[in-house]
Design goal:
The protein is α/β, with parallel strands linked by helices and 481 residues long. β10 and β11 form a beta hairpin. α2 runs antiparallel to α3, α5 packs parallel to α6 and α9 packs across α11. The protein starts with 5 loop residues before the first helix and ends in a 10-residue tail after the last helix.
Length: 481
Amino acid sequence: MTQYTLKQASQLLQSKQISAVELATEYLAAIAAQNSAINGYITFDQDKTLAEARAADARIAQGNATALTGVPIAYKDIFCQTGWRSACSSKMLDNFISPYTATVVQNLLDEGMVTLGRTNMDEFAMGSTNETSFYGATKNPWNPEHVPGGSSGGSAAVVAARLAPAALGSDTGGSIRQPASHCGITGIKPTYGTVSRFGMVAYASSFDQAGPMAQTAEDCAILLNAMASFDERDSTSLERSKEDYTRDLDKPLKGMKIGLPKEYFGEGADADVQAALQNVIDLLKVQGAETIEVSLPQTALSIPAYYVLASAEASTNLSRYDGVRYGHRAAQFGDLEEMYSNTRAEGFGSEVKRRIMIGTYVLSHGYYDAYYLKAQKLRRLVANDFQTAFAQCDLILAPTAPTAAPKLGSDIHDPVQMYLSDIYTIAVNLAGLPALTLPAGFSSRLPIGVQFIGNHFSEAKILGAAHQVQLASDWHTKAPV
């Protein structure tokens, strides 16, 4: 049962060929047997999961189920849910049990989805390898000597290992798309503001966006239909008419113009990544799509602009963790100031401290204009590049990461190298655009993904293009042995 896609599980549940309790029980057994090998889940509660499954079966029996009722799902540890620990994989929140539920989680609970547990992540979503977690690194299920990517590495790993049919991740600078690439699954970052951020612990508020991760683009479209909603509790939530993100899944690609950014097709990507891109280009051409060269000239400025802005926002957002209100508090201190400093020194890991210090520096007097304001101007230039490109094409095809998944430990001690691995994903977040990663090949048995990038609110078009590629290929059907 654990090999089903979300769509297949939904069909079997609705036809009553399987029950939600049977399906949840199969996943719980698989998690118990296999999770220790990859460390994908860090919190699970069998009693809560089975209670939700029984409620889903009752709803199906009553005839008021939705397409998602009874389907299990895993949540990245950044999403709050009443009664569950939501630690952001940090010692700082190791003892935090959420008193409320994130809007996006509540939307899925309202559909009748069944919670399997919380997945491991880079601490406070800061990292690209899932090695900064307080609970230890997640390992890539294709090869445990390699990373799964980050920061949503736990979510990607459990879907790839078939320990969940789908999972939620969050994408601040590529944190859904990059681990999806490294683990051989599909993941989409929606347009900024499409999915509520209420109850999703903030890293960088003007970048963070929740999105679905699953085996197929079709599964992601089904999930996004339920996830997207206006939320008055989130000041960045967009008030728009409800969309059907599955509407273009069967739309032919004939006549679609696909932009290939010349800056992304140079020496930066490995030969195997270039080969994966060519695989998809060939499929697109067979289906009648046209490829044209476009330019994103500010690409090289994306990484410095992003790490200035995201670190500044992180510095502000994480100032609330001081040992006073909730979370970790140091046991030994002499006065209030020492309590603050000891708590934060003990509660945060080195990568989080590094980004807080960078952010505090660029926001400080005398450096705000020199760094923060300049980075904001660069952000606008990056966004303008995309608008120029989309005047010429419908979608952009690009690498997701320069290489397949690196080995554990190879990047974690070299922050600059880790930051550079996000070169193909960060610009999308700077511009607030939607983008999807889908599997497109392998390198020494490690998956490689490529991404479709679209203009604002073009999720349905992106999902449709990805679905057509997946109908003509089988990379997304492969699973670790």
